[in-house]
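Hi P.,

Sorry for the delay on this. The queue was packed all week, but I finally got your sequence through. Input first:
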Amino acid sequence: MHLIRRPVIQLQGLIVLAIVLGGGGVVYGYRHMVIQLAALAVLALNFDSVRRFVAEAPRVLVALLALTMAVPLLQAIPLPPAVWQALPGRDLVVASYQVAGIAPDSWFSFSVDPLRTLTAFCATLAPATLVVVGWSLPQEQRALLVKTLVLLALLVLTLGAVQLGSANTAGLLQRIEPEADVLYGTFSNRNSTGLFFVIAGIMLAALPRRGAWLAASAIAVAVLALGVVLTQSRSSMALLLVLLVFVAARAGIALLRHRQRPLPGKALGGAALAVALVITGLAAAVTSGGRVAESFERFSQIEGDRLEMWDDGAFVAGRYWPVGAGTGTFDEVFQIDESLDYVSPARAGRAHNDYVELVIESGIVGLLILLAWFAWLAMALWHRRRDEDRWLAFAAHAALVCVALQSVLDYPLRSQALLCTAAVLVVMLLPARARSQ
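Then the structure:
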């Protein structure tokens, strides 16, 4: 019981729940409810940490977190008819009221779908809990959160191997129509699975290791890189370059700073081993054919669906600009303005560009908050550049850059699993705490 009362153990449990249950979309309401109730329980058990976060954490971070959570909550509040009807794009809501026989002078929320928007607000509870409680953890306990992510990534990869062994007829945790040769793990989207492996590989490369653990870590990084390829996610495979550059940069800087000392060469050797294993293993797999070769062949396939969705998405964004339609409402509003030239039997579901989707849903406010987050991440990295555990901060920033890059083509932060993963990365960018918990 004493261990369960420790905040770090509670956060590790929350991360496990997020990765195991939160790899799907909004349709998995009960799974998300379990994660969010667990987050509220952690907050209740650590009320003093919440108070300290509000009083002592970096002011910009506190404001950004509060604004990020407040936007969907405020968007769901009912407004008088003179206010909501004056908002861009709400003429469609008025027309819908008239068709349904509802008086158009009724109060209505800023969001065109308040229930979707409230669902989006609930999705912020778990990542916010990880940031608020994780902020006060000392350095060594923060590293435990990273190790938890890495271990979970290896377990997800193991589950994915079982899935591939059965041609995805067994071991799937999501209700999807899988492709037989794609590794999904605990996610419903191969891009999310691949990104999770890339993040875990980068963070693993930053963890301090010595002796046999150094070689084991290098092998684990190579295995995670292979897992990325087995997802057949082109965006994630492209992000492997970030992993390789990070490992090479750490090795190169270690060599420059310690070239007069013989021992740090072990670190260089471990990094070189990781890079060599990744490159050699992938090259051998590609030349021998099989699933890895098929994954790389996908780069020769050009799909126009995303460009069509972005084109329609820009039109939808213009309809609701500059205020947006409400967080979480994309799937509802996109169908109205989807071009007949691009329409297909399947629903778009997402814009497959989180920046376009953000503008559609939250307009200029969402865009400004996103830019503020980017600015804070850069500032936080600058302040951590000389700290003892700076490589974990560098790795967290590199991993968040991967999230930002994949967001151009996909929607990584629309799942509880990757939202919570990103929250752990934010914690690693915060100033180290010396206080024991």
